[in-house]
C-alpha cells in the first residue's frame, strides 16, 4: 500500500473522520483519500510508516479504541535534505461492520516538548 492513497483510504469507513498531525481535517472516505494523496505528493513521498506499542479497549463487540505509537522515516525537507524520523501517537476508533473492521476516526498527533523541558519519559 506504500504510496497508494486509494488502497489506504479503503481501510476507512465511508463516514470516517481524520485530523492529521498538522491539523488538516477530512470527513468521509473520499476526503481522507485526498489527504493521503496530498501527503504522498509532499512530505510523505517515499516514506515508511511503522506502528508499535498497541493498546486497545473494546467499547462494544463491534467498536474498539486503539492507541499506538507511529514512526515516519524517510521524510525530506523542501530542499531535499533528509529529516529525522517523526514519532507520533495515534488514537483511533475502529468499527466492525459486515464482518470487516474499518477505521472510523483517527487523531494522529506529534507530542511536542516545550523548550527547556526534558522529553516525556526522560530521567
Describe the structure.
With 123 residues, the protein is mostly beta strands. It has a single domain, classed as Nuclear Transport Factor 2, Chain: A, CATH 3.10.450.50. The protein contains 2 helices and 6 strands; from the N terminus they run αββαββββ. A 6-stranded mixed β-sheet has the order 2-1-6-5-4-3, covered by helices on one side. The longest helix is centred in the first third of the chain and has 13 residues, at 29-41. The chain is globular, with a radius of gyration of 16 Å.
CATH architecture: Roll
Helix amount:
10-25%
Order of helices and strands: HEEHEEEE
| Low-pLDDT regions | none
The span between the termini is 38 Å
Instruction: State the CATH topology.
Output: Nuclear Transport Factor 2, Chain: A
Q: Can you summarize the main beta sheet? A: 6 strands, mixed
Supply the number of helical segments. 2
In short:
The chain is mainly beta and 123 residues long.
Helix and strand topology:
Elements (H helix, E strand, L loop, with lengths): L4 H5 L2 E8 L5 E3 L1 H13 L6 E13 L2 E11 L12 E12 L2 E10 L14
Parallel strand pairs: 1-6
Antiparallel strand pairs: 1-2, 3-4, 4-5, 5-6
Comma- or semicolon-separated keywords:
single chain; mainly beta; 2 helices; 6 strands
Amino acid at each position: 500500500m506504500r504510496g497508494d492513497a486509494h488502497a489506504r483510504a479503503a481501510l476507512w469507513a465511508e463516514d470516517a473522520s481524520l485530523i492529521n498531525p498538522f491539523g488538516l481535517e477530512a470527513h468521509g472516505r473520499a476526503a481522507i483519500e485526498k489527504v493521503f494523496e496530498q501527503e504522498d505528493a509532499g512530505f510523505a513521498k517515499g516514506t515508511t510508516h511503522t506502528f508499535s506499542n498497541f493498546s486497545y479497549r473494546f467499547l462494544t463487540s463491534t467498536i474498539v479504541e486503539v492507541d499506538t505509537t507511529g514512526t515516519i522515516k524517510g521524510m525530506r525537507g523542501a530542499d531535499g535534505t533528509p529529516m529525522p524520523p517523526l514519532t507520533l501517537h495515534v488514537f483511533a476508533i475502529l468499527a466492525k461492520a459486515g464482518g470487516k473492521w474499518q477505521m472510523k476516526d483517527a487523531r494522529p498527533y506529534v507530542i511536542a516538548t516545550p523548550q527547556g523541558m526534558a522529553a516525556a519519559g526522560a530521567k
